[in-house]
Here is the input.
Amino acid sequence: MAKRAVRARFNTHRSSETLIKADTNMERKPSQYGLLRRFVHGLVGGVAGASAASVAQSEPPAAPYDAGLLSKAQLLWREGDWIGLVAMEQASLQHHPERAMLALLIATAHQQMNSPQVAAQFVRLACDWGCSGAQLAQVLIAGVHHTLGRGELLLQNERKACTHFALAAQAGADRSIAGRSRAAIEQDRIARAAAMHPRSAATVAAVPAPPDEPFAPPELFSEGIVSYAQNFEDVMLWRALRRVDNGCYIDVGAFHPVHDSVSRGFYEKGWRGIHVEANPAFAALLREDRPDETVMQVAVAATKGSMRFFEFQDFPSESTGNERHALIRREQGARINELDVPCITLADVFAQAQGREVHWLKIDVERMEREVLAGWGGTLMPWIVVVESALPHSKIENFLEWEYLLTGRGYKNVYFDGLNRYYVSPLHADLGALFLSGPNLFDNFRLSGTGGPYSELVNGRHRQREASLVDEIDRLKEQLAASGPPADR
Here is the structure.
């Protein structure tokens, strides 16, 4: 009875026609299905000779076996329980009259769990035990549809998912019902996985759905940015925001207009924004270099007023309004000037945006992060917030002191680059999926030679070469002077 059910499921003429059509459709769309199609045909081709030589083998000798094993395997296969299938021991198949089909179902499970070598071993067993080429093609191609169906569910394309699950079911009955039932099982599995791993699920959900056919391959290289920042902050922000034209930023603790600047690359792309810099010298440089932007020569704190600002002479980027940090550094020998500067709140800075959308906010204030974020007010929600979270000249993080002021507004931490933490607004949570990896080849960025320590080696070699050329010019001048005036011609 079980044998007839299996043959009815996998060997009907109608099922074979459907699989041939599915395989033909895969052939027409190699960019979408090519890898899976080649995997199926590779397995089929690799064991075809063994299958032809093995079909005529005699039935296995009579021995005790689990009569319900095939029904259990079929149920696991229909429900996509690949873990349950791969847990079946090979020894339990040896004497089963349907061992070829069992081995093939287990091969499909290994295929689904990205273990192609093990899958190939079970395919060879299935062929040695008398599995036909038609059965092999049916089950493996159905496995391909399982994979595509789950992918469509993750991308929230339920209609396409049901179509793939219906093709995978191969039941010969109402395929739409089979597809919807299979989709419901997978959706429940995805929901349970999301409950166990909420961040991973949010990341998957944030991936945008692909366009309808014809399928278009994703961009491998985007238009890159020239990086001026000290730790590739501009590269990461550009990856997430490169599709925004003429965007707006707010840079609190802007420092220099070029050196270690997060905004310079965006400025060159046509963006404009607001700079907050309490150091008078750097505020003047920003005004000179960016005459078409807003430069605020103030400090940012929890309340308005004035504050004592500590200007580091040897490491100006470390200048701060945090008195404790300044005292520690002074004891270590730092030369520090003290001056009174006006201070405003972050809400006052936001007001300068005058209703514009702010795409990123960067805060680099040397241990004043909590004071800055405490002054957040109004309804403005920058798409991405980048906050330096490591203590000056240290790998120790201090984000627990201030992160609650961001998460309390719904912001989610999506990336840590070793120096800064990146937070995405709840209104633009989909951007979180773009922070799964650090700066890399596909960001297509170029180094300016002014950001961080990454260009020091190249810059040092250029300085050596320049000095060598100057020496050579001086030597040639001396030789020319010693040879006297040129002879009249």
